[in-house]
From TrEMBL:
Gene3D superfamilies registered for this protein in UniProt: 2-enoyl-CoA Hydratase, Chain A, domain 1 (3.90.226.10)
Tree of life domain: Bacteria
InterPro entries, alphabetized: ClpP/crotonase-like_dom_sf, Malonate_gamma
Protein name: Malonate decarboxylase, gamma subunit
GO BP field: carbohydrate metabolic process
Originating species: Leptothrix cholodnii (strain ATCC 51168 / LMG 8142 / SP-6)
């Protein structure tokens, strides 16, 4: 779904969101409340400049509109793979974006992520996965690595990883597998405005992804390990 159609289904004409290249920013109205909209489009690669522009939009919301909810619209192919961005410190820029989102949450801003097209790798980790809760459209594509790339990194054959992916969501791309693992809280279809309204009202402010993954059978050990660490602290 393109971002124009998405915003129409979420807010009708009650928004002032614009695209500046691959960067989405602006505001929208829902039930009389103003929301800050920050995101990306065009399968954007997240480089230093784009990460910092998103971070600036989040920080401006904190400074100028305390308590305003933030909706992150996610469509990214992951981090920008260019020497220039590596030399400029893409790792720090993306970490800065994640810290800004975390700070917004700590200061009482509701932060909701929505994967409406594609979410890959670090571009997703430092945005939607740091929100209070992240949701997705059923047709969205989410993955960290394709199986061939995973095979090269792990030294496990593609055939073995393909077999593992049939029973274990951790090894498989796909939005349903991220729901099973707890990374995506739920899929939105039908009335998207109603889904956003419900998320703003009821999305947890604590990180319950490990517990969701255990309950859904997608990550069976993470919650138990987290609890053991907390018990030992």
């Amino acid at each position: 779904m393109d971002w124009h159609t998405l915003l129409q289904r979420l807010f009708g004409d009650a928004h002032a969101v614009q695209a500046d290249g691959d960067f989405l920013h602006g505001t929208a109205q829902l039930d009389g409340a103003t929301l800050a909209i920050v995101g990306t489009t065009g399968h954007a690669p997240i480089g230093v400049a784009l990460a910092l522009r998103q971070a600036r939009a989040v920080l401006d919301t904190l400074a100028l509109h305390p308590g305003r909810a933030i909706v992150l619209l996610i469509d990214t192919q992951g981090q920008q793979l260019r020497r220039r961005d590596e030399l400029l410190g893409i790792n720090r820029a993306m970490a800065h974006l994640g810290c800004c989102i975390d700070q917004a949450r700590r200061q009482g801003h509701r932060v909701i992520g929505l994967v409406y097209d594609q979410a890959l790798s670090g571009g997703f980790i430092t945005s939607g996965l740091i929100a209070d809760a992240c949701y997705a459209l059923p047709e969205a594509e989410i993955r960290v690595m394709r199986i061939p790339a995973m095979a090269r990194v792990t030294k496990i054959s593609e055939e073995r990883l393909t077999a593992l992916s049939k029973d274990n969501p951790v090894f498989a791309p796909g939005v349903q597998n991220y729901v099973a693992m707890g990374g995506i809280r739920a899929l939105w279809s039908g009335d998207l405005a109603a889904a956003l309204r419900d998320a703003l009202a009821h999305a947890p402010t604590d990180d319950v992804r490990a517990a969701d993954g255990a309950e859904r059978g997608g990550r069976q050990l993470a919650a138990a390990v987290v609890q053991r660490v907390l018990d030992a602290a």
